[in-house]
Amino acid sequence: MVAPANPIPPGPGQESVWDYPRPPRVEDSPRRIRVVLNGVVIADSQRTKRVLETSHPPVYYLPPADVQMQYFQPTARTTFCEWKGAATYYTITVGDRQVVNGAWAYPQPTEPFRGIAHYLAVYPGQMDACYVDDQQVQAQPGDFYGGWITPEIVGPFKGGPGTWGW
Fold first, then answer.
1. Strand, coil or helix: what is 142?
2. Is 158 exposed, middle or buried, given 0-12, 13-18 or 19+ CB atoms closer than 10 A?
3. What is the pTM of this model?
4. Which of the residues 33, 76, 83, 118 has an alpha carbon 20 to 30 A from that of 27?
């Protein structure tokens, strides 16, 4: 992986995505994570996991017990991550709003990621809003990654134009 020429130095209380590991790691997060779609809180948890990988903002994974699963329908889509294994996807439908393949999970992840088995992640850019504690997040650039950007995370971030080789 080739790092960009201008990584942003983290300030006090900040993390640089360029200090995250590769291969990625999973860790518990005590922060309150909320997801809102079509005006409904579809997930609210303080028992999440976050996956940290070089050049990516964190991706939060929520335990199914803290997700309003009645809004989630499995789809036929699958993808494969070299680190986590095979992912399955969900379409989220709340009222008249539907987000096709807006969430994913790893039912049988590789051993280092067994802590996220069956946990769900969402694309924050496809939701009305996602929050870390009371801070609304920005979505990671691009349409493939699901990172959550907050003021304490600095980049630059993979996903935007010209970043494929990072």
1. coil
2. buried
3. 0.95
4. 76
